[in-house]
Every structure is written in structure tokens, then in C-alpha cells.
């Protein structure tokens, strides 16, 4: 008798094995040669006594749990690492930088073309160089050169985070100016 060896046959196969080996007085005719699997193709001509399917492949709940628990654990771990290592922020900055580079290459704007921009430049510097920037650098750029410069004490929007303000100011500026100093290189914001 050919059998369809799927999950539905697991209990019957276990029952026949137990009866054939443990129950005295019960005889299965032509056991085991007369009991073979005909389907699926991978189990064709396998003896029913050798047929075995693990519980996990037949029980949907066990299969779901064994897939979902590691998946959920992995997703939570990745989210925690991303949050801990500021990965979303870095991805956002990479996206903004790529967009800015693409925009700069494709548009090739002239310095006098300020359509859509509020500032000619955004200045980034260490707080330890603030006195020099405020006393000498800003007056030179804004007064002598006639440029509109984004200065954080004047142009940041209160209530927004520093990162949001920086991104907004960079988007509304034609250029970014970094005042490089030993203090700037050691600052946390320089690394961002």
C-alpha cells in the first residue's frame, strides 16, 4: 500500500511502529516491506518504518515561535544598537550630504543666485573659538564681504534640537564654513 507521507501520516506511522514492535498478538501483514511512501517525491519508496517528520515541520505554532522569537530578538538588538550608536543620525547625514553633493553638481549655481537659500554660508566652529568668530570673522564676512551668514546664536530656532537646527541651517545655506582649530578637532560636534 503506497502512503502519502506528510504530517497527517505522522501519528499513524508512530502507531504502526509501536504495534509492530511492542504489541504481542497484533500482526501487520507484509510489515515493513509492504508499507512504502509514494508521495512526496523526495520520500518515494521510503519504508513507512523509516518515515520521520520532526514536530517543528508539522506544528505551525512551534514553527512560528522558532522563527519569530529569534527574528524579534534580532530586530530589537539591531534597534538598540542603532539607537546607541546613532546610526539613524549618520544615515540621515549621509543622505543629506549625498543630496547636497548631487544638487551642487547638477545645478552649478552661481554665488549670486540665492533662490531658495537664506544664507550664503553656515559657520561651524568650536565654542572655545567663539570670541574670535564673533569679534573678527563674522564682521569680516557680513560687513566687508556682504554675505549673509548663519550664526547659531542669532539664527537657530528655539525649541528645536541642535541637530535639527544644524540640518535646517545647512539646507538653507549655499556653503558650509568650518573654522578648523585644535579645539574644533577635539570637540564632539566635529565628529558629527
UniProtKB/TrEMBL annotation:
Asked whether the UniProt record includes RNA-binding among its keywords, one would answer no
| GO annotation, cellular component aspect | plasma membrane
What stretches pass through the bilayer?
Answer: 61-82
GO-annotated molecular function: signaling receptor activity
Pfam families for the chain: TIR
Which InterPro entries does this one have? Cys-rich_flank_reg_C, TIR_dom, Toll_tir_struct_dom_sf
Q: Its GO biological process terms?
A: inflammatory response; innate immune response; toll-like receptor signaling pathway
The yes or no answer to whether the keyword Zinc is present is no
Location of the TIR domain: 117-192
Q: Where in the cell is it found?
A: Membrane
* UniProt keyword terms in alphabetical order: Immunity, Inflammatory response, Innate immunity, Leucine-rich repeat, Membrane, Signal, Transmembrane, Transmembrane helix
Q: Main localisation, per the record?
A: membrane
Q: Entry's PANTHER family?
A: TOLL-LIKE RECEPTOR, TOLL-LIKE RECEPTOR 6
Task: Give the family, as the similarity comment puts it.
Answer: Belongs to the Toll-like receptor family.
Q: What is this protein called?
A: TLR1
Species assigned in the record: Ctenopharyngodon idella
Amino acid at each position: 500500500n503506497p502512503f502519502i507521507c506528510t504530517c497527517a501520516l505522522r501519528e499513524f506511522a508512530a502507531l504502526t511502529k509501536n504495534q509492530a514492535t511492542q504489541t504481542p498478538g497484533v500482526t501487520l501483514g507484509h510489515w515493513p516491506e509492504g508499507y512504502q511512501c509514494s508521495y512526496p517525491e523526495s520520500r518515494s519508496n521510503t519504508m513507512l518504518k523509516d518515515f520521520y517528520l520532526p514536530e517543528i515541520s508539522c506544528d505551525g505554532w512551534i514553527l512560528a515561535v522558532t522563527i519569530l522569537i529569534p527574528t524579534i530578538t534580532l530586530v530589537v538588538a539591531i534597534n538598540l544598537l542603532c539607537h546607541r550608536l546613532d546610526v539613524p543620525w549618520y544615515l540621515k547625514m549621509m543622505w543629506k550630504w549625498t543630496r547636497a553633493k548631487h544638487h551642487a553638481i547638477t545645478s552649478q549655481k552661481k554665488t549670486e543666485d540665492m533662490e531658495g537659500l537664506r544664507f550664503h554660508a553656515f559657520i561651524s566652529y568650536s565654542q572655545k573659538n567663539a570670541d574670535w568668530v564673533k569679534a573678527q570673522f563674522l564682521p569680516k564676512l557680513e560687513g566687508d564681504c556682504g554675505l549673509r551668514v548663519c550664526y547659531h546664536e542669532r539664527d537657530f530656532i528655539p525649541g528645536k534640537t541642535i541637530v535639527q537646527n544644524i540640518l535646517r541651517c545647512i539646507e538653507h545655506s549655499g556653503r558650509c564654513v568650518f573654522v578648523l582649530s585644535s579645539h574644533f578637532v577635539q570637540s564632539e560636534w566635529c565628529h558629527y
